Amino acid sequence: MSQPRIQPRPASEWDAEVLDALSVMIRPADSPGAQGAEPAAPRVVNALAVLMHYPALAKAFLTFNRHLLSNSSLSDRTRELLILRIAWLRRAEYEWAQHVLLAQRAGLGKEEIEAVKHGPPSKVWSAPDAALLQAVDELHAQAFITDATWDALAAHLTQHQLMDLVFTVGAYDLLAMAFNSFGLELDPGLEGFGERRSS
Question: Are residues 141 and 157 in the same domain?
């Protein structure tokens, strides 16, 4: 795809409905007018700016997404491992680029991030990590985790964590489809599957 199908909505077009939708993901201290500041549209990444063309949908999805990012029973490292794998399988460059940064903050090293591309067989992974990646591969291929993989996961994860795993993969699979279909462009400074974009 040579051109984006949906451009990020310019901040000059944001209204109260947009700011209300964004408030789901933005901390109060970062919101317009916080600490006596003049109201102004917060700077957001392209993914959020594209969603702001449809604030009602954005608010509904972001409410769910905030659970996955902030209130999930999974560790940050586990969450990012799952997201990177589904982003790679879906060839979702924007999702991959954003979550490489989050994965690094969560403790995944460069070798591990590179190994995500090779999936469960990579020798980098412990048995629990390989089971996580296998679960993503199975959900991607057949929308079902096999008994063997489920049992391997259940040896290390609680019931809540197993549920969060499926919903995390599903949510970011959905986002990958959306971002790929919309033609979402990388934010300046992000490195996707190719070269780093200039600022």
Answer: yes
For residue 134, give the CATH number of its domain.
1.20.1290.10
The identity of residue 79, as a single letter, is R
The pLDDT value given to residue 34: 41
Does residue 60 sit in the same domain as residue 95?
no
Strand partners, 196: 191
Segments forming the whole domain that contains residue 112? 74-182
Q: Tell me, what's the pLDDT at 83?
A: 98
Rounded to whole angstroms, the Cα distance separating 156 from 152 reads 7
Q: Hey, CA dihedral for 7, 10, 16, 18, is it positive or negative?
A: positive
Average confidence (pLDDT) over 168-195 = 92
